[in-house]
TrEMBL record:
This is TLDc domain-containing protein. It holds the Pfam family TLD. Residues 300-493 form the TLDc domain. Residues 56-65 have a biased composition (Low complexity).
Amino acid sequence: MGASSSTANPSPEAHEQREQETLASATLALPLLRAAFTRTSSSSAGAGALPDALAPPRGASFLRPPGSPPPPPHFHGLLAGLGPAVASLFSAGGAAALEGDAGWVPFLRGFNRCCARVSASRSLALLHRVYANACAAAGAPCGVQFQPGDEGGDEEGKVVGELAPEEIAAFLWMCWVMAWSGSAPRDSGDGGNKSEPVVVLLPDVTHLVLSALVSAGAVADDDGIWGWEISRGGKGLKVQEFTSWVISTASGIGNCLSRYVQGRFRSLVADPTEESSVSTVDTAFDTSDVFLLTRGRAWAIALSLRNKLSEKFLSASVIGMDTEDLLYRSSVHGKGLSRFWSGVEGYKGPMLILLSASSKGGVENVDSDRRWVIGVLTEEGFESKDMFYGSSGFLCAAHPIFRMLPPSGKEKNFVYSHLHPQIRVYEANPKPVGLAFGGTVGNERIFLDEDFSKVVARHHAVDKTYQHGSLIPNQGYLPVEASVLEVEVWGLGGEATRRQQDVYKKRENIFSEQRRKVDLKTFGNWEDSPEKMMMDMMADPNRVRREDR
């Protein structure tokens, strides 16, 4: 009876260990966690093993992208303190509390604190704490402060303070480096092989910082947006306002810490031979932003989505998009709906259409930085119809400010793509030829004409398909007509969808070749042809002819 009673009533320590292991196993495999704990808690590893394991890969030099503001002077010091800042979340008693078998439960407790499923506000509070600790280690200014909770129930406390525009940019860049670390290899110093230094260009986050400031009213949504720069400084945001913007616009930021910790532990216990093969790929990617889909815009879209496409855009923000996914680019393939259709026809998968335009309509305005970029994310392929169709989609403003407009759920006028019919007939009220998104036929929210020379953007009042929000700064209620500068279409369906499109195009080419070929045998002999009979009758109409029977 005593033994059964002991088994039925385990000690509080054993009960807590079982709870923590169950919670942790829902996020990461326990054998992997045990291996990571062994490597970071052994006496031979030293007290700095866990901060080193949670630090970003060494040997990377982070530079600003061309034409964007540079990172603050203390940014590299902030990244150097990132590992200790994350490690401080694992144990309030320091690294000594995690040594030996007795440190397994505190290790799990810290892992669950970082990676367990919690509310968005709590995960952001942890990320703010990491940022504040890293800034303190780098001696950098930080407007984030923490106050104890009213009832002491929340160990994170209440986050208060104010973030200046430069701090918002540094915070976003820190989150991007954490995402980049998930695809970068851990530096292997055991074998004596030092990897070559990696030069990494940080993405431009001006459109994200501006989106946060406009959402809180710190910057007016008017002509002042054009040419706005982070280096101007100005009024900042309260932490609560910034948190509200993240939850509504860039909810993916809340997952940065969890993904970062899991990625660092996976890299810690990975086979060095496998990791070295990965490093050759990750260090050779092209970081230049030559397309409309820059890495900064790809990351902004990834943060705003909550579906499987988020991973696709997150990868694009780190290593760039695969050029094989570029279905159409007007500067390369030519402008016009027919050229566009030759690139997207047969692609039955999600696509991103990016459009760059100048709202004052002339070439002389191109160099004045009054250029804007909008995008459309479709969930399915294009069809030639004289009506709206589609099941889901998103509109987004990509430059100079970022906004993502998901479906409203009221109507389903997602896509309109109408080409000239092959057999033309008279129509009393012909439907417009071109591309459109949202609104109704003749009153579209976005309409791109047949020649891809003009685009019209209307106020959201005409549209019940996508949520409200301006696509262009200072848009107003009147339609905005603009000259199209560039159009890009990216396929997001992966290699399988590309293969299906290739099969479709090959089949269509075979049909086209068959229609071009003329089989002369089908016309028969000239002596028996109707044409010869008609010519003979015209030559001598009175001639009596004998009918062959």
